[in-house]
Specification:
By secondary structure, the protein is mainly α. Helices cover 61% and strands 2% of the residues. The chain contains 21 helices and four strands. A two-stranded antiparallel sheet has the order 1-2. Its main location: membrane.
């Protein structure tokens, strides 16, 4: 039942294995090697890294390419998962989010409790999402085929992909702003490039954006193994600089002059602080809701589910708490050192105003933002868009569609517009909750952790996941029903307040939880009322059983003809 796990990790965007689907043209790597030729030789000749999913002869080419097929090998360790979360947490956005909780009027211990509770919830949910992909070796959009249907899975894939494209542009723009600071400090003549602007962005802004756009594309284009190496390095690098920054600021301020209580305004009573703490917890969960939904894109590479769980524990509660403490120390020290509270790390190193600090700090936080952008907003649409048309859109092509789309959106224009963010990303973001609830309900409650891997790659009407013309109508109805409520909770309160009706904007903080809970409950109710998902036997050799402790990718060598 299990695949071996003793060879290098299997990056997407790599040559197809020897078996190709019927009707598909065989790529060069699918040709049998000459006697004495090693697989490494063929891969190196193609200039591409080793590995891919294995495609069975029964897999339909309309649903299959080597990036979406079940992995042959899974070798990511708990450190690789830990490093993934370091890249996700160690960003300007993560820094500002942790520091912003104090602006809610909470005491230090209350902020700490909110951070810990919020990140533990994220850890639990990430473990839930991780399991189906780790056990089957397929990415997020493919595992959804078992729940939404082989064609219906494009619904969650496109929604998640569009969200990622939008935020990919925003994160690249924020990193470009940091790079602008370096240019202005070391090349004073670049000041002349700030005016005029083209499509709302200055010439210097375009230069910085282009540099980072190309750098991210280069890392992505080299495949998942290169991305793994990058995030293995980027996360710890940010820690080093953060610790150096904290030591410098504390030494300048003196420890006795640092207060860890950054709350502003009058202190809240205990009763009044409860709803504020709940909002802070919801803010932490919402911040991670995007990468949490498609975490299966990464957990599929885990050598075991135990390794993934350990990496999540190290990378979420422990890592997030330590990074938050560093954030609070650095932000607190800015008050005695600079005379004002600075919660943006880029502005902090700019305020130090020494060439070395600006260069080191600027490049570090640029690297951090690139890291989170690749793992959270590049890889997701790469798989999602590839899932729509696997034979036309490879993993690399899907990623580049996202990269080009991020420029077309001109994120620098609408990022400064609160209404644009609220009503555009608010609508898309509110749908993440229902999609999460449906995935969890489908895999754990209705499917009982059993997935027929081969049937996720067949268009045959007799396939278990064909449902009604490729769509599970229960899943589609749940997305619509729960999505309407979730979107309404996200956008209507602000609209009601703006026209003077009633102020219930606090509801928007819980739109993810509303959508998730309603999506879960509605899908379970519909499936029990009118069952669509198949009941599978764990003893079936073609079924991945999530109850097994060992890695449970169905062996692609034991059953070469499929089912």
């Amino acid at each position: 039942m299990t695949a071996p796990h003793d060879t290098p990790a299997v990056p997407p965007g790599t040559p197809a294995p020897a078996t190709a689907p019927p009707g598909a043209s065989a790529p060069p790597s699918a040709v049998a090697p000459l006697p004495g030729t090693k697989p490494h030789d063929l891969v190196e000749a193609a200039g591409m890294p080793i590995g891919a999913g294995e495609i069975k002869a029964t897999y339909d080419p309309r649903l299959t390419n080597e990036d979406l097929a079940p992995l042959q090998k899974q070798t990511w360790s708990s450190y690789n998962i830990f490093a993934f979360w370091m890249s996700d947490v160690h960003s300007v956005g993560g820094y500002v989010t942790a520091g912003s909780l104090f602006a809610l009027g909470l005491a230090s211990w209350q902020v700490l409790v909110a951070l810990v509770v919020g990140i533990v919830i994220v850890q639990v949910f990430c473990n839930l999402v991780a399991k189906p992909s780790q056990k089957t070796g397929v990415p997020y959009p493919v595992i959804n085929r078992a729940i939404f249907g082989v064609l219906g899975a494009n619904i969650p894939a496109i929604i998640r992909g569009l969200i990622a494209v939008a935020w990919y542009g925003v994160q690249t723009f924020l990193a470009a702003e940091a790079l602008n600071i370096i240019f202005l400090k070391f090349l004073p003549a670049s000041q002349s490039l700030l005016e005029p602007s083209f499509l709302g962005l200055s010439a210097l802004g375009w230069i910085s954006y282009a540099i980072l756009w190309l750098a991210q594309a280069a890392v992505f284009w080299n495949g998942m193994e290169t991305i793994r190496r990058f995030i293995d390095w980027a996360g710890p690098a940010v820690y080093v600089v953060m610790i150096v920054l904290a030591v410098y600021l504390v030494s300048e301020a003196g420890w006795s002059n640092i207060s860890l209580n950054l709350s502003s305004g009058p202190p809240l009573t205990f009763a009044a602080s409860i709803p504020v703490m709940l909002s802070a917890i919801a803010l932490v969960v919402s911040y991670f809701s995007g990468p949490m939904l498609n975490f299966g894109d990464f957990s599929r590479y885990g050598r075991s589910f135990a390794a993934v769980r350990k990496g999540n524990f190290l990378g979420l509660p422990l890592n997030f708490l330590f990074f938050s403490l560093l954030t609070v120390v650095c932000a607190s020290a800015t008050v005695p050192v600079f005379g004002r509270l600075i919660t943006d790390p880029i502005h902090t190193v700019q305020a130090i105003d020494t060439p070395f600090a600006i260069l080191l700090g600027g490049l570090t936080f640029v690297t951090a933002t690139v890291g989170i952008n690749i793992v959270a907003n590049f890889i997701s649409p790469a798989f999602d868009f590839s899932n729509v048309s696997p034979q036309r859109i490879s993993w690399r092509t899907g990623g580049m569609i996202a990269a080009v789309g991020s420029v077309v959106l001109t994120p620098w224009n609408w990022y400064a517009n609160d209404d644009a963010i609220h009503y555009t990303l608010g609508v898309l973001g509110a749908l993440i909750g229902p999609l999460f609830g449906i995935l969890i309900a489908g895999y754990y409650v209705i499917g009982r952790q059993c997935v027929h891997v081969d049937d996720m790659f067949t268009m045959a009407p007799t396939g278990r996941y064909w449902y009604s013309r490729g769509y599970n109508r229960n899943a589609v109805a749940t997305v619509v029903g729960a999505g309407v409520v979730s979107v309404a909770a996200a956008v209507l309160p602000k609209l009601a307040k703006s026209i003077g009706l009633v102020d219930v904007t606090w509801i928007a903080s819980y739109s993810w939880f509303i959508g998730c809970g309603l999506g879960f409950a509605m899908f379970v109710w519909l499936e029990r009322r009118n069952p669509q998902m198949p009941t599978l036997a764990a003893s079936d050799a073609h079924v991945s059983d999530g109850h097994q402790d060992a890695p449970a990718v169905v062996s692609h060598h034991a059953h070469p003809t499929g089912s």
